[in-house]
Amino acid sequence: MCIKAKSLEELQDKVLNCRACQLRQTCNQVVFGEGDPDANIMLIGEGPGEEEDKKGRPFVGRAGKLLDSILAENGFDRFEDVYIANIVKCRPPRNRIPTPEERGNCLLHLYKQIEIIQPEIIILLGATALQGLIDPLAKITKQRGKWLSWRGIWVMPTYHPAALLRNPRLKQPASEDFKMVFEKYRELIDTKHFY
Ligand code: URA
Known about the structure:
alpha/beta; Uracil-DNA Glycosylase, subunit E; 6-stranded mixed sheet; 9 helices; globular
């Protein structure tokens, strides 16, 4: 099945009314995504947590603050330079990992979101994003920091910011992964993007 929508607004409308899985029954609201609809970089996380579910926006809790600071250190802003979305748009109860069925339903929305935004680069934040978009058996510890390709788009898997909060030793490798992305951005899109 393919989702029909010509604009992000049209897609958002469909996603807000989606009842394809049971997650919508337990979450407070749908977290569609936010940022520049014409962004060249798209970041994809796992799914909304408690804060995101309250505010209706992606990555606004502690992990989100860390993500904002990683972007800012490299001269990027969440509203102006990137678009942020998740594998599932509704919070799984108690932040459990979304089931394959829940991911499967919601991936159709994500595919359409990517098709409309047309990013040059996708950053996959954590194992669920890597497994959802690329390969259900992929390991984030093996794939992080290595360029992949998905439908002609450059893809960089890295650790989820929540993992960096739990284990600060992952911050250095994650920072190297982000640096590779921002170098690629300067190479492909804007050589003068400031630091
Ligand atoms: N974790 C995610 O994967 N996504 C969010 O939006 C927030 C936390």
